[in-house]
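Team,

Forwarding the record for the chain on the shared tracking sheet. I've put the sequence and predicted structure together so nobody has to dig through attachments.
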Amino acid sequence: MDAPGVAPARITLFLMTEKGYRVLQHIVAHLDKTAVALVVGAPDAHVANDYFAEIQALCAQENIPFQRRVAGRPPAASQALAVSWRWLITGIDRLIVLHDSLLPQYRGFAPLVACLLNGEPEIGVTALYATTEFDQGPVLAQVARPVQYPITIARAVALAVECYLELTAQLWPGLCAGSLPPGTPQLEAAATYSLWRDEADYRIDWHRDSAYLRRFVDALGAPYRGASTLLGGQLHRVLAAEAEPDVVIENRAPGKVLFVRAGEPVVVCGTGLLRLTALRTDAGADALPLRQFRSRFG
């Protein structure tokens, strides 16, 4: 509790995506929103709904000052909390970052997607102090959730949001009082990194095994654009798929269609088969039922 007559420390929030919006909602509904000095937001072109408008609208509704990132450097602040932020933040004495992995594993970019691709048994979020090197600062707290496969990225994001809200509730009293602990140094020997992703990383490699490709399709679905592949020289998006048991193929050629069942192609993988249950052109038109049996995905 703050001492009588002592105002809580003022906190700047750097918020993006659904995670940032849910954190702001939680602060408004359950925590001391008067501690928020400013919310800085930015659009995210990589997802279908970036929640930028929702963040801005909630700030207006609650009379919380809001600033777009491109409007210029925000005023210097003693404390800040960053959620899903993609850019370097300067001018903050104490910056807390919420990161989508259980550090020191999966430092870097798109860690939640990387966790799902690797079939990790649990996912989580880490609260840490920002330093000059990304995701290497002392850890304040971590929250984890077990996962069972198959799992879509939308479901994984919902689990991650639970972690975000739990961490925010833990940190908020200390942020308001300006009295957070120093944190625990990370174990460098256990550190791993997740690389940034671009459009090329959406492309399906049919030489991989079908279990991995099922995770690949699930991990890159909505709110992302969807796993991509070429069919007839045109880019398509695989939005849902199911791994099927392998059969003996004398002249295995990953990417070729082996069966068409109820209009859905069953594609040869490096190991196993993948049945495409939702396939669209890059423009969004439904590409099922498959028109031509003798098709090759690439």
